[in-house]
Description:
Elements: E1 4-6, E2 9-11, E3 15-20, E4 28-34, H1 37-54, H2 59-75, H3 77-88, H4 92-114, E5 119-122, E6 128-136, E7 139-143, H5 151-162, E8 166-170, H6 176-189, E9 196-198, H7 203-212, E10 218-222, H8 225-237, E11 241-245, E12 250-254, H9 260-272, E13 282-288, H10 289-304, H11 324-339, E14 343-346, E15 350-353, E16 359-363, E17 366-371, H12 376-379, E18 386-392, H13 395-403, E19 407-408, E20 410-414, H14 418-427, E21 432-435, E22 451-452, E23 455-456, H15 465-469, E24 470-478
Parallel strand pairs: 7-8, 7-10, 8-9, 10-11, 12-13, 12-20, 13-18, 17-18, 20-21
Antiparallel strand pairs: 1-2, 3-4, 5-6, 6-24, 11-23, 14-17, 15-16, 19-22
Bound molecules: nicotinamide-adenine-dinucleotide.
Amino acid sequence: MHRNLINGEWVEGARVSRNINPSDTRDLVGEYAQADAAQARQAIAAARAAFAGWSVTTPQQRFDLLDAAGSEILARKAELGDLLAREEGKTLPEAIGEVARAGNIFKFFAGEALRVGGEVIGSVRPGVGVEVTREPLGVVGLITPWNFPIAIPAWKLAPALAFGNCVVMKPADLVPGSAWALADILHRAGLPKGVFNLVMGRGSEVGAVLLEDKGVDAISFTGSVATGQRVAAACAARMAKFQLEMGGKNPFVVLDDADLAVAVNCAVQSGFFSTGQRCTASSRVIVTEGIHDRFVAAVAEKMKALKVDDARKAGTDIGPVVDSAQLAQDLDYIEIGRKEGATLAAGGEAIERNADGAPGFYLRPALFTETTPGMRINREEIFGPVISVIRAKDYDEALALANDTPFGLSSGIATTSLKHATHFKRHAQAGMVMVNLPTAGVDYHVPFGGRKGSSYGPREQGRYAAEFYTTVKTAYTLA
Ligand code: NAD
């Protein structure tokens, strides 16, 4: 039994959740304690009590702890990657890459703890000095989704701790294993009791307490738009600081002058890899007339070679969908696309058993062609391995179609034209723009986030994380 970490103690929960392997539903990854509302409140109280001490630790103390955690994560990346692939269903190389990312994030923010600086500015008044400094917020509540079980907890936790905050984290119900491993690593690294608390449990119960309890000064949330709106309403009602990273409907534009192999690789990579379960996945591929038919034929050809199988088996390209509810949602959208009149050019079938006969939530990636921008499959986030191709007559129309969405996370283009690449970088309405690269797959040391309905509040990651996890103080002194 994996227990919750509250005030430095491992505690039993009110209930138990069973973590099931989506590649083989007979395989129980482990049992995890589920906290209730009262335990969530205890965790918040513990974090509050720990703040006075933690917020005045030296940068060196915080560096040492975060650096040690980063080293352990990196040293154990094969084992932790195996756990991640087993509980979430992304392939082993993807999972090991995600764990390495988490380790590097801890190392990056260990360094940031040493680099918290300020400004000294001349006053407009004689004899007065002005100092601008950054201070921690207090207790930060972290609520994370299932699709990046270790990287997202890491990119919230590491800056929160580096800048001197205490934390209560509620990971996604479906994938508690990686978050638990992270808690175990931090606990053993020697974090003082109460500085970091893990409360696994239901969103509607444990998550709701984090949103409502006045002991939580700020919430960093990643997940769906519907939950994000709840977070925003609850935080605004009590004036708590909040940050939201939500869905996407990311466009990838392919122009006539694109290198065909580059365009096809980018589309297949960001449309289907990680089973399409990335907020930065390309789901709308907008292709100009001159290359359209060659591009579609090449993608369909490449799809034939994709191996959909157990996430941990060597050679698997696409692991299973995370659970039965997400698989049902993906299949619903495939049916919706058909009914809307799109052509299902390849894939889209559920596979009940993998090559070894293991039962799992497998789905062949789906390619829709002849789709129109108003179709639901082009407006709503599916969160599965489904690409819709939209025809465009030229670059201008392609750009307009790319921006015609309520979301704005990542946007990509395949082109060999410097003019179009430069124009697209400036005019794509997205937080992240990719030229001749997949829309998914980003560095760990630079800002991450979107615009419009995808994100709210300061960017995550890189040096920009300080915007959310600290508050600015301006001090005046008359010498
Ligand atoms: P979700 O909104 O269902 O859940 C996210 C988290 O919120 C979970 O921990 C859940 O338990 C919790 N939660 C649910 N109800 C709650 C409530 N009433 N109060 C407080 N917390 C509550 O999202 P999901 O299905 O886990 O994740 C998939 C979504 O996440 C997709 O929309 C995807 O695009 C998005 N996502 C966005 C980014 C990004 O950075 N933009 C990254 C990854 C995933």
